[in-house]
Design brief:
The chain has 2 domains: 163 residues, Lipoxygenase-1 (Sandwich), CATH 2.60.60.30; 225 residues, sav2460 like domains (Lipoxygenase-1), CATH 2.60.60. 5% of the residues lie in helices and 36% in strands. The protein has 3 helices and 32 strands. The protein has a 7-stranded mixed β-sheet with strand order 1-11-10-3-8-7-6, with no helix packed on it. It holds the Pfam family TerD. It comes from Streptomyces yanii. Belongs to the CAPAB/TerDEXZ family.
Length: 456
């Protein structure tokens, strides 16, 4: 795979070019700018990103991370108009979290490829001076030829500042809602009778105003995760009114299946922010029994050892919320289970104070009285919502029988842009009653926790 150094370039064909963003650590957003020969965009329509995924009828297209791959930009050079001189690819930190910089991003790589050709990759230099955005790579014209150039230039003022430098008008803060505007207008008193007759004058031309570009991420809407995939739910970590609801839902499957027993239980294994580590392994990674959690504390200065002994938190004292330990939303752990349902339906827990959360692993337990049916045969799934327009369903895909535990979803609150929701679907060993274990670095170990039978 050809690798470019900063400033180097290589020729590409006229076919569609796909650029993928790969990162380790704090998430980074990928966007593109269509730039004219004067170094500026032609209009605000030339910014392609999560809020505006298309430009020039799809000649440049933004694709969110999904089961097909990471976040990416697709570019069709042959479909670009003559006044577009280049397409600049940009990586940026969450615009809603001004404390996040590229210092927290352990690795950044941009890969660009065309059908039938070797991919081209570029690792920008390490950015440690407070940069919140970086120019990664550009696709540009040289006569009849198109080339890719590695850039690697950082910006301290993030996507908003970078976009402004290229001529984009960026919205500084959300405008008032229609209801707020109505209330404001009604509160202003106006005279009941005009003291001077109003004489119509010549019509005044009305200037066309362009609304500033809104960089705030939109709600996810309703989505369902593919097997092994993940999605980021944008959250304000300091929002004291925010409630994330996670529910285990199941309908019991068939009438026969329900008659045999369908008592499932929702467990939330959690690592609070005060104990969480950012490790080398991605959160949600399944590890073996000899795993030792290592990493940097999530909170600077927190009294968390860089290495957590293997035996820590594997016994009955592990951090968990379930039907015997309902938790609380008023005090730690700021997680509470609403109750125990012994019939098909729903068990829900509420998670508040996202700033106090590290990792939350959502698991389901099938009571022995249910027999050997698979979790999928019960119609089991997890549904996570922020109550603000984002609802993520995490389904099950495997028909695994004689398993009493399944780790379904990991909610990673250490993500800079809110919470990353991972599809896990990891099952306990056959006929094993041991609960899963969530390590301080967000990794998961199956068949390692305590055994606790639930009886009728």
């Amino acid at each position: 795979m050809p690798e470019l150094c900063k400033g180097e370039n290589t020729a590409v064909g006229s076919g569609r070019v796909t650029a993928e963003l790969h990162t380790v650590g704090t998430p980074v957003d990928l966007s593109a700018l269509l730039v004219a020969a004067d170094g500026k965009v032609r209009s605000d329509d030339d910014l392609v990103f999560y809020n505006q995924p298309l430009a020039e009828s799809g000649a440049v297209r933004h694709l969110a991370a999904d089961g097909q791959g990471p976040e990416r930009i697709e570019m069709d050079p042959s479909a670009l108009p003559a006044d577009v001189d280049r397409v600049v690819l940009v990586g940026s930190c969450d615009p809603d979290d001004t404390t996040c910089t590229f210092r927290e991003v352990k690795e950044v790589q941009i890969r660009a490829f065309q059908h039938g050709a070797d991919p081209v990759r570029f690792h920008p230099p390490t950015l440690i001076d407070g940069e919140r955005a970086v120019l990664l790579m550009e696709l540009y014209r040289r006569g009849p030829t198109w080339k890719l150039r590695a850039i690697g230039q950082g910006y301290a003022n993030g996507l908003a500042g970078l976009a402004t430098d290229f001529g984009i008008q960026v919205e500084e803060s959300p405008g008032p809602s229609a209801a707020d505007q109505s209330d404001t207008e009604e509160s202003v008193s106006t005279p009941a009778v005009a003291t001077t007759p109003l004489v119509p004058g010549p019509a005044t031309p009305v200037a066309t105003m362009t609304s500033p570009m809104n960089l705030r991420k939109p709600p996810l809407g309703k989505i369902s995760l593919d097997k092994g995939s993940q999605v980021s739910m944008d959250l304000d970590k300091n929002d004291r009114e925010l409630v994330v609801t996670a529910s285990l839902e199941w309908d019991g499957g068939s009438a026969r299946r329900r008659s045999l027993g369908a008592d499932l239980d929702l467990y939330a294994l959690f690592v609070p922010a005060s104990k969480a580590l950012r490790g080398k392994m991605a959160p949600g990674t399944l590890v073996k029994s000899r795993h030792v959690a290592k990493g940097e504390p999530l909170r600077a200065g927190a009294a968390v050892p860089a290495t957590v002994p293997r035996t820590a938190k594997k016994g009955k004292g592990a951090d968990v919320v379930y039907y015997k330990r309902l938790g609380s939303v008023k005090t730690r752990p700021f997680i509470r289970l609403d109750g125990d349902s012994r019939v098909p339906g729903r068990e829900s827990l509420r998670i508040v104070r996202p700033d106090e959360q590290g990792y939350v692993l959502l698991c389901a337990y099938s009571a022995l009285s249910n027999g050997i049916g698979s979790f999928r045969s019960f119609g089991a799934k997890v549904v996570i919502t922020d109550g603000r327009g984002s609802t993520v369903t995490v389904p099950l895909y495997e028909d695994t029988k004689t398993r009493y535990w399944v780790a379904i979803a990991l909610v990673d609150f250490t993500a800079a842009d809110g919470a990353a929701i991972h599809h896990i679907e990891a099952y306990s060993a056959r006929m094993t009653e041991r609960r899963p274990v969530l390590h301080p670095d967000g990794t998961i170990e199956m068949n390692a926790g305590p055994v606790e039978f639930k009886r009728r």
